[in-house]
Fold each of these.
Amino acid sequence: MSNHGEIESLVTRLRSFRTRAQAREELRALGDAAVPELLGMVEDAQEPENARWAGITLLGDMKCEQAVPLLVSLLRDDLPLRGEAHRALVQISGQDAGEDADAWETSLANCPEDAEAVEAGGESVPSGEEGVSDLELCRRAVGDVATKLSWEGTDDEGYAYIRLPLKEGRKQQMIVTFDEMDDDERPLATIYTECGPATPEAVQAMSRWNVTLRYGTFVVEESAEGQQKVVMRHQTLKSGLLPESLRTILLTMAREADGLEFEITQSDQI
């Protein structure tokens, strides 16, 4: 299936939840032939939001470089689609400049397409940040605001510990690790913070907060002592991760995690 009419029909089927899943699979199989129709649909603000969301997802899955300018414009002008546009840009470029359109334009202009992370002495060098260790990346991101920032553990199995001050004297401790990989064996930065015990009320509140999060997800995890707790976790590609992008992620997550923490505990746990 490759003629224009058939591709147009498949794109139209993205509008309905009943036909969307099958249409996505068929369009994904078509590859480049489907790109022009997908770009037109995603760009059309009159199309249903769910259809445009599905189109953005496909363009990201297909690593469609033609879509990059459009996706950056969505970051700037289309709040409901900003999160999916961000995820697609990360898939396509292998970089992560957060959800700031200006940061993406700068990042894409400065980083060559084949930039890769360089490993040096157990600490990574993000593309575009030559010679910068994992700890230094965190320091450049939030060193001016953190009340504590240190590297814990060994180079191979360590993590950055960051304590961020918030309003009314509150604070949130953040953990950043760099030792996990995605399905394509690309290094990830993982940002993690704890919020409190996973009571039934906390789990209910967690689900409500997850609907509006800019970064990461609240989930329930089991501690080493076997206790259920609510945590917030976000992962992004380490290659191309800039200090300003990491700063935005850390500060946003800290505020949102602290908001849920206060709701479920009425205290400031750390």
Amino acid sequence: MSQKEDPGKLTQRADEFLQVFKKGAEFTQELLRENERLRFQLVQVEEQGRLASCAAQALQEVETLKSQVADLEQEKQEILRRIARVEAENIDFANRYVEIEGENNSLANLYIATYQLHSTLDFRDVLQIISEIIINLIGGEEFALFLLDENTGSLQAMAGEGVVLDRLPAYPLGHGILGTVASSGESFYAATLDCAGPGCDAPLACIPLKIKDRVIGVLAVYKLFLQKRCFADIDYELFTLLAGHAATAIFASKLYSESERKLTTIQGFLDLLTK
């Protein structure tokens, strides 16, 4: 028969068991806390990794966007250059259109003027029409038309505007600008369009009136209505066309006047004979 254990020992053993169980429970709780801490650190590491990956992706996207912005900026600059070039071309075309329109108007006016020149054989009417052309097309304010006197070999003022014809000298061939132009058949243009005045031998322009190679007179322009700094290309063309047509009209009207005068003389002589 076994003996009963001492109640004190049982209590001690129970306390020891409780202590062991308590330590086990504490260890278990510590393990759970450590596990939770490790899980939290793992989540932080994963989050940091995710953020780092997002940051790297964001940086890559930023670099891509910067490259796209640079490409777009380059395209914008190229488009702006093209626009500027197109605008410059449009301005050039517009200026050219205005210039051509002015030339067409001048040529149309010259056509009308030349038609008027050849519409009459009266010498005085021809000189008047030439003066009107110089005023309206060239813009001449002061000018004179000199014709060559075959007998004296000098230029005599026959018509003009803004000048006193009787005060203009006669220019022998080869003397002064007018005489040189008449002898050479080459036009003269002053370097600047300052008013030279009819009293001196320095006109703004001096144009020979020629029929082929024969000079029958010169046109001297001393002052213009429009204050230009230089003659335009259309002015030179107008001078050239006007000189040829004016010379032809003057020559034809002089021949007609002489023939009319001779015819009148012959008719008078015949009338005397018949009486």
